[in-house]
Amino acid sequence: MSHAVIDYRNLFALDRKVALVSGGSRGIGEEIVRALASAGASVMLTDILADEGHALAKDLRGRGLRAEFMRQDVADEVQWEMAVAAVVAKFGGLDILVNNAGIEKQSLIADLCFEDLQKVLDINISGVLLGCKHAVRAMRPGGIAGKGGSIINISSIAGLGGIPALSAYTASKGAVRLLTKSVAVECAQLRTAIRCNSIHPGLIDTQMAARFLQGFVDLKLAESVQASKEAFLNQVPMGELGRPQDIAAAVVYLASDAARYVTGAELHVDGGYYAM
Ligand code: NAP
Question: For the whole model, what pTM was predicted?
């Protein structure tokens, strides 16, 4: 019996796909933007950091890739409507949304500042939910993009279990884990051809990670940044921090047709942290 030969290299390619990445100006988001563009996608990157975002888009265009920057605060619904409309107008569709923008505030629970809590919840939960809402409206049959797509929400290992001095952040990232599953089952059952998955990075070498390690020193939970880092790495079987590329590669997989049957999943990219 003859068997059709699938070109698996093509299955992972993102040619002719259009992506929107929030918080894409630096850190993990920057690497996600670079990865999606180099895999063939046209990328609209958004962020509140405008100078870095414009510079990144220009750099990618200089390499012959397709990228544009737009300023966007993910906590503002009107700005989501504008971002989705802008990406469809610029690149002719929307196939991939990466809800990457997120903030972290460290504090002991007894000292939790209400304004900080509200900000974390607004950006990390409302920002992701609003992104899902407006991407689904555009991607579903009859929407302005209309061809289905892949939504990828960046949660964290802090969305899987407790971490001291991180209650607001863990609450928000735990919410991202479960809202992802609700969006996934709803979109699948309504036959929208939209998939939705979450990625759970371990500690990744970015400015956020540096602030996280320093935070334990500031709160007198560690003697030095080095001690803070060693204490964390003792819980990581692979014994090292992750790199932004590790997360970007996982995004490319979930964005691609190789993940056609994957929805509602949580992909741990954490050096084995959660397996312990
Ligand atoms: P990052 O270096 O702080 O970058 C996050 C980006 O999002 C920044 O450019 C930030 O701008 C932007 N941003 C903040 N608030 C925004 C808003 N309201 N609207 C739009 N953009 C906004 O963080 P990262 O380490 O790359 O983290 C990216 C994602 O991965 C986050 O969701 C984070 O929670 C998650 N994560 C990170 C790690 C890690 O170890 N780094 C681990 C697990 C999960 P400003 O700099 O001006 O705030």
Answer: 0.98
